[in-house]
Amino acid sequence: MRLDRRIDGAPLPVHSDGQTKSDPLGKPQFHDDVGDGGARSDGFVMASTSKSFGQRAEGNDDDFEFIGSFGHVVPSGQGFMNTIPFGSYMTPALEAHSLWKLYEAGESLVEAVRDVNIKIDSGEMVAVMGPSGCGKTTLLNILSGIDEPSSGMVSVNGEKLYGISDDARTDLRGASFGFIFQDFNLLPVLSAAENVELPLLLKGEAPHEARKKALEALEMVGLEDRGEHRPAELSGGQQQRVAVARAIVHQPSIILCDEPTGNLDNNTSKEVMSLLSEMNRNQRTTFLIVTHDANIAAKCQRTITMSDGMVLTDSITTPPEEE
Ligand SMILES: Nc1ncnc2c1ncn2[C@@H]1O[C@H](COP(=O)(O)OP(=O)(O)OP(=O)(O)O)[C@@H](O)[C@H]1O
Ligand SMILES: [Mg+2]
Question: Which of 15, 59, 294, 296, by CA, is between 20 and 30 Å from 23?
């Protein structure tokens, strides 16, 4: 893999390509040589190339090059290079190396995610933007264990998400992630409190404990007086607040959001985003938020943009003034 230049513009050493993949739609291949977050979190650069899946180099240590302590986006000659902000020595909340997702659709092959490398530190709030169809939801689904990658590696708080048993993955997902979707995904026949407590009951928590935690979570999102309401008896913003309560009720360390404000008007969207920012600030919950809304991205500390399945830029956002 070739890195074209350093943060300071100086040329980087050129690395020779490794072994190439011969069976892109075969069994998913997961790298065992990463996931050691702490060992690598002292700052490094990862490069995405514009190669197709069959041409790409096998992910290995040679694919990553330490280049400095801090950086924004550095465009490279033939492809794109994105730098990851200098992290602490903590294990990253989410880390992905050399992720690919290929879909076979009839005769054609869709490369929905192409050689994506990402590192999200614990407590970061990161936006993912890009045009429709560029692979944002596919990437989010892979990072959360909903959808298996064709190849590559994902680690969650230092633990591998793939290449482990389905049960182990379900446990890791359940313990680590909360999800917020554009269309709220609430069950219409259940009350707000029942929707929020459901994930706890499914995990085997005692009903009275689950209800207590659900009511606490509803209180956190300002809906303590709406516990008995069904979704149809709530406004869109209130429904999304219930979804936020459901996402946080088991105190996950990472919340993944796919267009969380996509169905809300401007004001309601601001309110929901303020709620998420508050959680990020006060509880250090890590957020990865797919959004088309530049105002939402402006509230995040970092914005990753995608294009055609690849990470195009990865840049730190200047925090907006508090209103
Ligand atoms: N199950 C599937 N089978 C085949 N192709 C798929 C499948 N899911 C997604 N794709 C394709 O993968 C690409 C990325 O889709 P994805 O849903 O990730 O885009 P997106 O960036 O989330 O778009 P949007 O902003 O519209 O939600 C698209 O070209 C899409 O058609
Ligand atoms: Mg999408």
Answer: 15
Q: Are strands 73-75 and 302-307 parallel, antiparallel or unpaired?
A: unpaired
What whole-number distance in Å separates Cα of residue 88 and Cα of residue 70?
Answer: 12
What DSSP string describes 47-92?
Answer: EE----GGGPBPPSGGGEE---S---EEE-SSSEEEE-----SSPP
Q: Is 4 helix (H, G, I), strand (E, B) or coil?
A: coil
- Among 38-47, 127-136, 263-272, where is mean pLDDT lowest? 38-47
Smallest-distance ligand from the CA of 110: 1
For ligand 1, say whether the CB of 116 is within 6 Å of any of its atoms.
Answer: no
CA distance 292 to 299: 13
Copy the structure tokens of residue 239: 């429904």
- The tens digit of pLDDT for each residue in 186-199 reads 999 999 999 999 99
Q: Minimum-distance ligand to the CA of 133?
A: 1
How far, in Å, is the centroid of ligand 1 from the Cα of 219? 36
pTM for this model (two decimals): 0.76
Residue 137 CB less than 6 A away from ligand 1: yes
In this structure, the strands spanning 151-156 and 64-65 are unpaired
Quote the pLDDT of residue 23.
39
Q: Whose CA is nearest to atom 30 of ligand 1?
A: 133
All structural domains of the chain: 1-90 (no CATH), 94-316 (3.40.50.300)
